[in-house]
C-alpha cells in the first residue's frame, strides 16, 4: 500500500481535474465540493507521506515497473514532501478564497486549479530530468489559463508576456536536456549524478554549458535577476487566489536549483562540482536588492506584493547560495514562511481593493474601509511577517540565514544587503499601511462599494495562512529539526542515488 | 550530414531568436515555433545521426538508432504543438482586446 502512496499524490489532482471536467454540467456547489474535498485529501495524504519519509527512508516508485535508470521514477525524500506539504496547504487556502466568487468568473477554474496542482506535485516528486520538463509544461499551461481566468485587458497583456518568456524557457530546457543526454546517455537524476561524477575531462565544458543552461531555465522560473521582469505584472494583474497559488511557482524554480545543483552538480560531482556556486549568491543578492527597490517604488498593494515575492526569492536563494547545511536549513525554513505570507498578502490586497471602489489597491488616500480594524490588523501582521520583524516567522527565517552566513567569506555583503533590504521593506510597508488605512478622505458622491461576500468568509483563508506562519514560530524547534535532517539528506547525494539505483521490481 | 544538421539547427535558432524579439505578436509566435523546431531537431540529433538502423533489437542488425531521443522528441513535439496553439489563440485575444498586435499593447508606428 505504501508503495503506491507516492504516485497517489500525483494522480489525485489529475483524476480530480478530469472528473471535474465531466461534472461541468452539474451545479457549482458540487464542483466546489469535489475540488475542495480533493485538496483536503491531498493535505492528509501529504501528512501521511511526511510521517513515512520522516523515518529516514527515501520512498521511490518506478512507473510501469521499469527499473531505474531505464524507466521514470518518482522519488519522495524529505525535501520533496516538504514542498508537497507547502503546496497542498497553500492550495487549500487559495481555493477557499476562490470559492467566494472568483471561480465563477470563467469556465473550468477548478479543473485548471487541479491540473496546476498535478504539475506542481509531479515536478516536486519526479526523479527524471525530462519528466521534470514535462511536469513544468503541465504546470505552466495550467498556469497560463489560470492567469487569464476572468479576462480583462491588463491581464491579457501580462499573460502574453508570461507565456512567451516561459515558452523560450522551455526551449532552453530542451536544449540543456539534449546536451546532457547526448553526452551522458541518461536523464535519470540519480544516474546523471553518477555519470557526471565520473566524467572524463574532455566532456566537462559541454556538461558545464548544459548545467548553466539549466540554471538559466530554473532562474527564469524562480524570477532571479535579470530574468524577473515577467513576474510583477503577471502576479499583480491576475485574480487574488491565483496569485496566492502562484506564490509557490517561483519556489518550484528554487526547488529545482536546490535539487539539481546539490544532487547532479553538487560537491561530489568531480570536475563539474559546485557548478553554480560563483553565480548563485551574487545573483540572489542582486535579486533581493532589485526586488526590494521595486517594493519601495510600487504604486499599488498587489504590485508591491509581487515585488515582495521577487525579494523573497532573493533571500531564499541567498540562503541556498551559502552552500552549507545551515544555509539550506535556513532557506527551507524561510521558504514556507515567505510563500504563506506572500499568499496572504495577495488575498488581503484583493479584500482591500474590492472595498475601496475606484481606488482599488492604489496607494492613495481613499475612502475609509469598512471593517478597517480587522483588515488593518491582518495587514499589520502580514507586514510584520514580510518585513521580518520579531516575533513572527520572518524574523526567525532571516535570523537563521544571517547566522548561517556568519562563517561565509562574503559575510559583509550578505549581512549588509539582507539587513538594509529588510529596513526598506519595513519603510515601504509602513507607508502602504498608513496610506491605505490612516490617510482617509471623504470621497464625494461615492457610495459604499457593493461587496457581495461577508467579511468573515474572506478573512478566514487569510487568517489561516497567517496561522500557518504562527505554527512555524511555535513549532520552530521540531520544524528546524526536520529541516536539519532534510539538509543532511540533500548534502549526501549517495542516499538518493542508492535509493533510486537499487530499486527492485515490485511484484 | 552532421554539418548540414548543425547548420539547420543554428539557422533555425538564430531566426527564432530574432523573430521572438520582434515587437508584434505574429513574428513572435513564428519565432517561438522556429525555436521549438530547432530544439526538437537538436534533441533528435543527440541520439547520434544514423540512417536505416533499427531502434529495437533484431538479430540481423549491425547498428542501432537510439530510440530514447525519438521518444523525447515525440513528447516535445506534442507539447510545443499545444503551446503554439495556445499562444496563437492568446495573440488573437490580445489583438482583439488591445486593438493592435504589438506585444505591449501600445501601437507604435
Automatic annotation (TrEMBL), chain A:
Main location: membrane
Compartments reported by the entry: Cell membrane; Membrane
GO molecular function: NADH dehydrogenase (ubiquinone) activity
Ranges of residues in domain NADH:quinone oxidoreductase/Mrp antiporter transmembrane: 127-423
Domain of life: Bacteria
Keyword Membrane: yes
Parts of the chain that traverse the membrane: 6-23, 35-52, 58-76, 81-100, 129-148, 160-184, 204-231, 243-267, 279-298, 305-322, 334-353, 374-392, 412-438, 459-477
The keyword Transmembrane helix appears for this protein: yes
Example GO biological process: ATP synthesis coupled electron transport
Xref: InterPro entries: CPA3_Na-H_Antiporter_D, NADH_UbQ_OxRdtase, ND/Mrp_TM
Keywords: Cell membrane, Membrane, Transmembrane, Transmembrane helix
GO cellular component: plasma membrane
One Pfam family here: Proton_antipo_M
Topology of this chain in the membrane: Multi-pass membrane protein
Family: Belongs to the CPA3 antiporters (TC 2.A.63) subunit D family.
Matching PANTHER family: NA(+)_H(+) ANTIPORTER SUBUNIT D1, NADH DEHYDROGENASE
Name the UniProt record assigns to this protein: Multicomponent K+:H+ antiporter subunit D
Taxonomy of the source species: Bacteria, Pseudomonadati, Pseudomonadota, Betaproteobacteria, Nitrosomonadales
Automatic annotation (TrEMBL), chain B:
Location in or out of the cell: Cell membrane
Pfam family, one: Oxidored_q2
InterPro entries given in the database record: CPA3_antiporter_subunitC, NUOK/Mnh_C1-like
Domain of life: Bacteria
Major location category of this protein: membrane
Keywords from the UniProt entry: Cell membrane, Membrane, Transmembrane, Transmembrane helix
CC terms in the record's Gene Ontology section: plasma membrane
Ranges annotated as spanning the membrane: 6-21, 28-51, 71-92
UniProt topology in membrane: Multi-pass membrane protein
Family: Belongs to the CPA3 antiporters (TC 2.A.63) subunit C family.
UniProt cross-references to PANTHER family, sorted A to Z: ANTIPORTER SUBUNIT MNHC2-RELATED
NCBIfam families: PRK08600.1, PRK09094.1
Protein name: Multicomponent K+:H+ antiporter subunit C
Species for this entry: Nitrosomonas halophila
Amino acid at each position: 500500500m505504501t508503495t503506491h502512496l507516492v504516485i497517489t499524490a500525483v494522480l489525485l489532482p489529475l483524476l480530480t481535474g478530469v472528473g471535474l471536467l465531466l461534472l461541468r454540467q452539474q451545479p457549482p456547489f458540487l464542483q466546489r465540493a469535489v475540488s475542495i474535498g480533493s485538496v483536503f485529501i491531498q493535505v492528509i495524504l501529504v501528512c501521511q507521506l511526511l510521517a513515512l519519509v520522516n523515518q529516514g527512508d527515501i520512498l521511490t516508485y518506478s512507473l510501469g515497473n521499469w527499473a531505474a535508470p531505464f524507466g521514470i521514477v518518482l522519488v519522495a525524500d524529505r525535501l520533496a514532501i516538504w514542498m508537497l506539504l507547502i503546496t497542498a496547504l497553500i492550495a487549500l487556502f487559495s481555493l477557499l478564497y476562490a470559492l467566494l466568487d472568483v471561480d465563477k468568473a470563467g469556465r473550468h477554474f477548478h479543473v485548471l486549479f487541479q491540473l496546476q496542482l498535478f504539475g506542481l506535485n509531479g515536478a516536486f516528486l519526479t526523479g527524471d530530468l525530462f519528466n521534470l520538463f514535462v511536469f513544468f509544461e503541465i504546470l505552466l499551461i495550467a498556469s497560463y489559463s489560470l492567469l487569464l481566468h476572468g479576462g480583462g485587458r491588463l491581464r491579457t497583456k501580462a499573460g502574453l508576456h508570461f507565456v512567451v518568456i516561459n515558452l523560450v524557457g522551455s526551449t532552453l530546457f530542451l536544449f540543456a536536456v539534449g546536451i546532457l543526454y547526448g553526452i551522458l546517455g541518461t536523464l535519470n537524476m540519480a544516474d546523471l549524478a553518477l555519470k557526471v561524477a565520473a566524467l572524463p575531462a574532455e566532456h566537462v565544458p559541454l556538461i558545464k554549458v548544459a548545467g548553466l543552461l539549466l540554471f538559466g531555465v530554473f532562474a527564469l522560473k524562480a524570477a532571479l535577476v535579470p530574468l524577473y521582469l515577467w513576474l510583477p505584472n503577471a502576479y499583480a494583474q491576475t485574480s487574488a487566489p491565483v496569485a496566492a497559488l502562484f506564490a509557490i511557482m517561483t519556489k518550484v524554480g528554487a526547488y529545482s536549483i536546490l535539487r539539481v545543483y546539490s544532487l547532479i552538480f553538487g560537491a561530489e560531482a568531480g570536475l563539474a562540482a559546485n557548478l553554480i556556486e560563483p553565480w548563485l549568491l551574487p545573483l540572489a543578492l542582486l535579486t533581493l536588492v532589485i526586488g526590494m527597490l521595486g517594493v519601495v517604488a510600487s504604486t499599488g498593494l498587489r504590485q508591491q506584493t509581487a515585488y515582495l515575492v521577487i525579494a523573497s526569492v532573493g533571500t531564499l536563494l541567498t540562503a541556498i547560495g551559502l552552500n552549507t547545511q545551515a544555509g539550506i536549513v535556513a532557506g527551507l525554513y524561510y521558504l514556507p514562511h515567505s510563500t504563506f505570507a506572500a499568499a496572504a498578502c495577495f488575498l488581503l490586497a484583493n479584500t482591500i481593493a474590492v472595498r475601496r471602489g475606484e481606488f482599488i489597491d492604489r496607494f492613495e488616500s481613499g475612502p475609509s474601509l469598512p471593517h478597517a480594524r480587522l483588515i488593518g490588523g491582518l495587514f499589520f501582521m502580514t507586514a510584520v511577517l514580510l518585513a521580518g520583524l520579531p516575533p513572527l516567522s520572518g524574523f526567525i527565517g532571516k535570523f537563521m540565514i544571517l547566522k548561517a552566513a556568519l562563517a561565509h567569506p562574503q559575510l559583509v555583503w550578505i549581512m549588509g544587503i539582507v539587513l538594509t533590504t529588510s529596513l526598506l521593506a519595513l519603510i515601504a510597508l509602513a507607508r502602504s499601511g498608513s496610506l491605505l488605512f490612516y490617510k482617509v478622505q471623504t470621497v464625494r458622491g461615492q457610495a459604499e462599494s457593493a461587496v457581495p461576500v461577508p467579511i468573515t468568509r474572506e478573512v478566514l483563508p487569510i487568517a489561516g495562512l497567517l496561522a500557518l506562519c504562527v505554527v512555524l514560530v511555535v513549532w520552530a524547534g521540531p520544524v528546524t529539526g526536520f529541516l536539519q535532517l532534510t539538509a543532511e539528506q540533500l548534502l549526501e547525494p549517495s542516499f538518493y542515488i542508492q535509493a533510486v539505483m537499487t530499486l527492485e521490481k515490485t511484484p | 550530414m552532421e554539418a548540414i544538421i548543425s547548420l539547420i539547427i543554428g539557422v533555425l535558432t538564430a531566426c527564432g531568436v530574432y523573430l521572438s524579439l520582434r515587437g508584434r505578436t505574429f513574428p513572435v509566435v513564428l519565432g517561438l515555433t522556429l525555436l521549438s523546431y530547432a530544439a526538437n531537431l537538436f534533441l533528435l540529433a543527440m541520439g547520434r545521426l544514423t540512417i536505416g538502423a533499427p531502434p529495437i533489437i533484431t538479430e540481423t542488425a549491425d547498428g542501432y538508432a537510439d530510440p530514447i531521443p525519438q521518444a523525447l522528441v515525440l513528447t516535445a513535439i506534442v507539447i510545443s504543438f499545444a503551446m503554439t496553439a495556445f499562444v496563437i489563440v492568446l495573440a488573437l485575444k490580445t489583438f482583439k482586446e488591445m486593438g493592435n498586435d504589438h506585444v505591449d499593447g501600445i501601437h507604435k508606428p
